[in-house]
């Protein structure tokens, strides 16, 4: 039953028709728990509230289903406006983005051009941009573009997914770049030919890549709500005498609030991934697919 629900939500998240319907009705049925709003102003207010109790953030202007150069340029403009708003408001936040929203599926050159404009704007404000990793089909080209960007920019990082077989090799390959990595388990439906099908194997690989990247001496963002993984990391950095300045915990907006606050009290840096925008449906469906408890939250809201 759980697998069937997960597959259903993942399929819905890729539906353009469902996405159009969601835009029409707005952030209803519980989506507002996971998405900070549809406007930059709403997202900045959400980050300000996080900053007040010691959490930092990374803002993501949600964008999927980009199929024209015009849409890609609009998405890039929104990323730059988000960086402007962060600087003007004084909140503590980075920027996260998906390269498909910048035209990756249209033209590699278009995507790189948009990325450079965004990174130039971020550098102006001494800010940092994180490239989100997408499905396996976009993995290699995303890493290739990241390596190209690192020739000119040091204010950019990328995401690595523990559920892929290739991930340990990717960690090794990125070592020479001193890459700032966000390490995640992975949220896309992938073939067992390229990804671990069993959760236990994903968890084990996740621990291995956390250890490897930290021991390589590079900045590591551990993005997980799994308390076992968080405890494992805390014990590992303690045993290896790795300073808190070399890593941070990252969690999603609206999930595990109390755990986030507790980690801050314990002296750890906690960064909250704060998505916003009208194109929120695909992101919301992936959150429902990840965790069945989120589905019951939504169902309760439907009948309020």
From TrEMBL:
<keyword id="KW-0547">Nucleotide-binding</keyword>
<dbReference type="InterPro" id="IPR029041">
    <property type="entry name" value="FAD-linked_oxidoreductase-like"/>
</dbReference>
<protein>
    <recommendedName>
        <fullName>proline dehydrogenase</fullName>
        <ecNumber>1.5.5.2</ecNumber>
    </recommendedName>
</protein>
<feature type="domain" description="Proline dehydrogenase">
    <location>
        <begin position="46"/>
        <end position="298"/>
    </location>
</feature>
<dbReference type="InterPro" id="IPR008219">
    <property type="entry name" value="PRODH_bac_arc"/>
</dbReference>
<keyword id="KW-0285">Flavoprotein</keyword>
<dbReference type="Pfam" id="PF01619">
    <property type="entry name" value="Pro_dh"/>
</dbReference>
<dbReference type="InterPro" id="IPR015659">
    <property type="entry name" value="Proline_oxidase"/>
</dbReference>
<dbReference type="InterPro" id="IPR002872">
    <property type="entry name" value="Proline_DH_dom"/>
</dbReference>
<keyword id="KW-0560">Oxidoreductase</keyword>
<keyword id="KW-0642">Proline metabolism</keyword>
<comment type="pathway">
    <text>Amino-acid degradation; L-proline degradation into L-glutamate; L-glutamate from L-proline: step 1/2.</text>
</comment>
<keyword id="KW-0274">FAD</keyword>
């Amino acid at each position: 039953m759980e697998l069937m629900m997960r597959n259903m939500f993942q399929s819905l998240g890729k539906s353009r028709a469902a996405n159009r319907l969601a835009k029409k009705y707005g952030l209803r049925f519980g989506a507002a728990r996971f998405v900070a709003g549809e406007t930059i102003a709403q997202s900045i207010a959400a980050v300000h509230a996080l900053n007040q109790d010691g959490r930092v953030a990374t803002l993501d202007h949600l964008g999927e289903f980009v199929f024209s150069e015009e849409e890609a340029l609009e998405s890039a403009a929104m990323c730059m406006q988000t960086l402007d708003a962060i600087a003007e408001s004084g909140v503590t936040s980075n920027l996260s983005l998906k390269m498909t929203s910048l035209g990756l599926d249209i033209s590699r050159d278009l995507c790189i051009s948009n990325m450079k404009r965004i990174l130039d704007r971020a550098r102006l404000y001494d800010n940092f941009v994180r490239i989100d990793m997408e499905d396996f089909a976009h993995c290699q080209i995303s890493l290739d573009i990241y390596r190209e960007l690192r020739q000119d920019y040091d204010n950019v990082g990328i995401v690595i997914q523990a559920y892929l077989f290739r991930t340990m090799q990717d960690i090794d390959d990125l070592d020479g770049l001193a890459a700032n990595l966000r390490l995640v388990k992975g949220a896309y439906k992938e073939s067992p030919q390229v990804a671990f099908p069993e959760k236990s194997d994903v968890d084990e690989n996740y621990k291995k890549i956390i250890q490897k990247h930290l021991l390589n001496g590079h900045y590591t963002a551990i993005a997980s709500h799994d308390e076992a993984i968080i405890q494992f990391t805390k014990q590992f950095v303690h045993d290896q005498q790795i300073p808190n300045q070399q890593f941070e915990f990252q969690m999603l907006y609206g999930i595990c609030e109390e755990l986030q606050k507790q980690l801050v009290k314990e002296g750890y840096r906690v960064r909250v991934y704060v998505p916003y925008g009208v194109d929120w449906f695909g992101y919301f469906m992936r959150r429902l697919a990840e965790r069945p408890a989120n589905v019951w939250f939504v169902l309760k809201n439907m009948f309020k």
